[in-house]
Amino acid sequence: MKITDIKLYQGNTWMWEESLEDYSVLEYDLDVYFQRGTNKITSRASIVNSIFRFNIPSTETAQFPSGVCDIEIIATHKTTNAVTTIFSSTKKIVKSLAAILDERTFYEIVLENIEIAIKDNIGKGFGQITMPGGKSITYKSDKELSELHAKYKYLVQQERDKQNGRSKVRIHKYYL
Which of 40, 83, 108, 128 qualifies as a FRET site for 136, CA 20 to 30 Å off? Predict the structure, then answer.
C-alpha cells in the first residue's frame, strides 16, 4: 500500500510501504515530510523484506492538525548523499471521529494491539508498540507476548461477563 492509497486520520498510526524500482533499499534512504503551517512530521522509512516501510506513531499524529497538508518523500543516496524528491503532493488529514466513537474498552484495545504484534512478528519477538494514553510496551519475546495475550483476553472476557450480568467464579492465574 502506498501513501496515495491510504487515508490519514489524526491520532492514528500512519503506516504504508513504498516499493520503488528506481530506488534500491541497498542504495537509498527514504524520508517523508508532512507540513501544515508550522506543524511538521518527519520520518525515515525502515526496510522490511526489501521494501521501504513508513510507520508514524499515533503519539506524533495526534499532535498534527487535521486539514490539507503538504507531503514530500525524499530519496537520499547512501554514498553520494544526492537528494531526489520522488513524491510531492497534498493530502487531507482527517480528524478521527473513530477515536471519539470507539466503544471498545481499554483492555479490548490493548488486546487488539497485542494480536497485531503477534501476527506481524511471529518468531521475531516485538520491539515497541504505543498504547492508548501514550503508554508503550517495549521488547517482548514471543512467549511474553503470548502471556500478555492470555492475560488481556481473560480481562476482556471478565468485562464482557460483568456487562452481561454473569457472575460465575472463574479460576485463572490472572487477578485484578
Answer: 40
